[in-house]
Amino acid sequence: MRQKKILVADDEKDIVELVAFNLEGEGFAVCRAYDGQKAWEMVNTEKPDLVILDLMMPEIPGMEVCGRIRRQETTASLPIIMLTAKSDPVDKILGLEIGADDYITKPFHVRELIARVRAVLRRSERRNDADLIDSFDYRGLHIDFTSYQVTVHDRRVELSAREFKLLQFFTCHPGRVFSRDQLLDRVWGDEAFVEPRTVDVHISRLRGAIEPDKENPQYILTVRGIGYKFTDGKA
Questions:
Q1: Nearest to 108 by CA among 214, 22, 37, 43
Q2: How far apart are CA 40 and CA 24, in angstroms?
Q3: The CATH number of 134-230 is which of 1.10.3080.10, 3.10.180.10, 1.20.272.10, 1.10.10.10?
Q4: 3-state SS class at 43
Q5: Which of 35, 55, 146, 204 is 20 to 30 A from 212, comparing alpha carbons?
Q6: Separation of alpha carbons 86 and 55, rounded Å
Q7: Which fold has domain 5-129?
Q8: Angle 13-25/110-132 helices, nearest 10 degrees?
Q9: pLDDT digits over 217-235, tens only?
């Protein structure tokens, strides 16, 4: 899997180094900027997967950099976490309205920042998965991702929002095996207090809705001792 690259932009070099050190310890690649102009340039040259952007920076304020990122077609969907000493709710609302995905105030706990980085990246990946295709067809199973309709051999089936998200995720990654924890991470995301057993329950319900024979599934397969996958047609 490709290493995710994070751009950390802040005029306080100690903050940049602290954040960079901990992100690199978690397996991320990090590029650094110490003013808004450099941050804007590196957004386009380094092509990061996520930007941690200080609100108050010289040359170009972080808020303006955020706005430029959102207005430019090639970076419009780039995840942004605003990092600032300002805790005024008005600043937070303004940052989110201009396009930041999340907002954290100084002083902050590094572990919280890293958790937010992972959460924002997960949300971004789920959006990207959903944007890849409008529909999916395989052996009588048809999914229309624009109207959220599912049919099996021309019979319409009703799914809960969670079951649909689970099916959508599987069909975006046919043949790839996912553990329960990975499915919780990618489908349930930031929800707290969700047990791995929850995955089994939803898989069972989903199979009951789409499989011609729930006991002998042909779409969503169990990989014993590992997890689940959507068939690649070879099983």
A1: 22
A2: 22
A3: 1.10.10.10
A4: helix
A5: 146
A6: 8
A7: Rossmann fold (3.40.50)
A8: 60
A9: 999 999 988 889 999 864 4
